[in-house]
Amino acid sequence: MTEILVIGGAGYIGSHMVKLLHQWGFGVVVLDDLSSGFRDSVRNAELIISPVADSNLLNSLFARHQFSAVMHFASFIQVGESMKEPDKYYANNLVSTLTLLDAMRKADISCFIFSSTAAVYGNPDYVPIDENHPKLPINPYGRSKWMVEQVLQDYDIAYGLKSICLRYFNAAGADPEGELGERHAPETHLIPLVLQTTSGRRKYISIFGSDYDTPDGTCIRDYIHVSDLCDAHLLALQHLLNGSKSARFNLGNGQGFSVMEVIETARRVTGYEIAVRHEPRRMGDPPRLVADSRLVREVLGWKPQRADLATIIADAWAWERKYPWGNGITIPPASTSLRNIE
Length: 342
Hints:
This protein has about 350 residues and is α/β, with parallel strands linked by helices.
């Protein structure tokens, strides 16, 4: 059985990936410090609770298992926090990854799948954004990811360590079977925040800026279903295991939706009104961030199956109603009307 080590496999995207790998017959070991992941999200895999920066543990782990590849999902992801605590982001996102890569070299493991981000591009010069767009990240989060990408290029040339970096746009949705979903604390992503307003966990959703140069004045983003995201990772893994060269791909649907479109779609899907509060613009929010994902479709044959915004929201809503807070929340009747808060 082909064994895969999944770093951060107890987190949002990592846990969905572990499930998919198991379905495809891979043996999976998860390494996660549970700082933002959850023990009960790891299913059909061995869970080792440890920070990835523990080189002794990594060396021991690689000695006990014959891993064919490593998939790395463990990083800090909050842009605002990265501005206030850059040391935390460089230590975890960059330095810990270097520790991991050096342990992989010692164990002669040469296939690496890395979760990168559209934040490596910074404020876009053009939209949709392709992989050749200049890399000018504007915060420590984006810079830490771009630094790892550059390290991986050097490690490929010097040591033959092959990698695929997948630059996420906006991961969203939940496992269609309802077993897994988004559980960030604090939550910063738009779709779960909107649905928390619907379920009563929040009084309103804030809209930061309604005067952008977009059709309805609110920011436009590219949302990709977490299951489609994991499908792309599986294709990337197979690509490397088959001996193909390193690559960098955008992961997005190539279609943008505004903040108001997300809210209106959530209203239709859930049957609830959703209270909104209009706030000033946030610094550093570009009007549009949309992926040009033609390259990953052409090279890996990736075809998103759940790209429709209503489908993404419906799956996330099913999770919001079911796990893990269902026992503690009484969702009001769908006829409840919540007024907009201006």
